[in-house]
Each structure stands twice: as C-alpha cells, then as structure tokens.
Amino acid sequence: MAVQDAQQAAAEADAILVVAPPTESGCPGLEALSPALSKQMRWIAYASSTAVYGDQQGEWTYENSPLNAASATGLRRLKAERAWIDRCQPAGLPLVIFRLAGIYGPGRSALDRLRDGTARRIEKNNHALSRIHVDDIVTLLEASLQRPNQHPVYNVCDDEPAPTADVVTYAATLLGVEPPTPEPYESAVISRAAERYFLESRRISNALARQSLGWRPQYPSYREGLTAIFRAESQTHFT
After folding, report:
1. Distance between CA atoms of 102 and 114, rounded to whole angstroms?
2. First to last CA, the chain
3. Is the pTM of this model over 0.90?
4. Which pLDDT band holds residue 194 (cuts at 50, 70, 90)?
5. Distance (Å, rounded) from C-alpha 78 to C-alpha 82?
6. Residues 6+ apart with CB under 8 A from 116
7. Domains recognised in the chain with CATH numbers
8. Cα angle at 82 between 196 and 93, to 5 degrees?
C-alpha cells in the first residue's frame, strides 16, 4: 500500500494498529501515518516489545519498571515509543503502547526449531524470559479496543516466564524425540545476538491487562500453547 493510500485509510478510521518494526531512522508507521492522526480516532495502538526493559536481573517486570534497553532491538523500540508519545500526547490523541514478549505460534515455535535442527538447549542460572501465543495477542488487542483509554501501556505476555531450555525440552517431549544435549551458557559457542539474548533476564507481569481489561490468556504457559500447536498440526497431518 502506498503511503498516500495508507494515510487516506487511516484518516477514515477510528482505530489503527501499527506493527511495523522500527528501523535505525525510526518508526516507518509513524512517519507514514502522522499527518492522518486526529482526535476522531478512539484507539491508536503501537506494538512495541518487552526488549525496552532490558535486563531486569530476573525480577518481575511491570509497566512502570525501569527501561534499561541495551540491545539494538530494545533501543529502537524505545526510541519508537518515545516518538509516538511525543506525537500523540501533546495533541491529546488516544495512544496505547503494547509491549509484546517473545511471540510464538503455528510455524514459529520450538517445535519448528527441533524439526529443522536449529534448537539448542543452552542453560544459564536465573535466566528467564516471557512469551505470548499469537492468538492471545489478538484477544488482548480486542479487549483494549473494546475498552480504550484505560492505560497508556500494557505488557503482553503469558503467566509463566521460563528458561528457553525448558521450552525446548517440553517441545521435544511432544514430538517424541530426545531434546538437544544441555549446553552450559558459559562454554556455549553462540552468536552475538544469542549472547545478548542471554544477557537479559526478566519476568514480565501481565497483571495490568488482567485487572484493567479482564483479559486472560488462553495459553497461560508455553506448555498449553505448544500442546495446542502440536495437536492442531497432528490433526492437519492425518486429515
């Protein structure tokens, strides 16, 4: 869609959701849609990332926790959030920022990484991160759309932060295969991106979304989410 067409569509809408990832120069969605934003809109949503929190040393992390972004992803997301706030807040526009944890779903999970041979079981003490099934993202966005102007920021995650090694092990159990051999983080040979991943540990809380929107994740942990994906794939395979 051309920028002009996107602006026209936004100008006629009463709600917009921006999911385009930011680049080094900023948020392409804000750059494209800024001229079309107006007070007639009742819901302007920007999909950010829990990477803006950076390392929280394994502590529970809330919407008002310190923003310690250090990774390239986290810094870009934080810059984009601030740009959206600077555009919308002075104009009184109804901005809601959603900070999404690690997204997984059909075709994008530990099951797929095990099948293609890229899954690893790297273990590090006190390391945990949060996740969210793609279907639960949709239901939370819908809940916010029905009740706009509740809070300016929401964490989007399931109920149980967990080490990646645990997720991989459970996925292997579902597939009936041996999980990868455990690798201590201290001796594992990993990429820079993976190293950054393991340098940050945080347990994201979804309490605000629960309390304000009455939302509950259909998949409260990776176990329910992976099991649902596995069963759906099995049914598709045998039909």
Report:
1. 18
2. 37
3. yes
4. confident
5. 6
6. none
7. 3-237 (3.40.50.720)
8. 140
